[in-house]
Amino acid sequence: MEDFIELLKSNVDSFADLDLTPSTEFNKLDCWDSLALLSTMAAISSELGIIISPVEISNCKNLGELFNVVSKKQQLP
After folding, report:
1. How many domains, the chain?
2. Per-residue 3-state assignment (H helix, E strand, C coil) for the chain
């Protein structure tokens, strides 16, 4: 989980200076907007090779839930 948060912080400019935890809720971040969502999708795709849709991200309440979605996709054959 810590590696996932660091991946996002280093690839999503909006997250760089934030203290992110698994319980960080997207809707409570002032910087959470459509650009941050697209940057998150791009970071996950380029760094992990996983395609995640805007709907999948929007369905996640916090970073922990997003991590779980990404982890499940990594386990698919």
Report:
1. 1
2. CHHHHHHHHHHCHHHCCCCCCCCCEHHHCCCCCHHHHHHHHHHHHHHHCCCCCHHHHHCCCEHHHHHHHHHHHHHCC
Are the C-beta atoms of residues 37 and 13 closer than 8 Å to each other? no
CA 54 to chain centroid, in Å, comes to: 11
36 vs 13: CA distance, rounded Å: 8
User: Over the stretch 26-49, which tens digit does the pLDDT of each residue have?
Assistant: 999 999 999 999 999 999 999 999
Quick check: pTM over 0.85? Answer: yes
CATH code for position 64: 1.10.1200.10
* CA–CA distance, 73 with 32 (Å, rounded to integer): 23
Contact between 63 and 5 under an 8 Å Cβ cutoff? The reply is yes
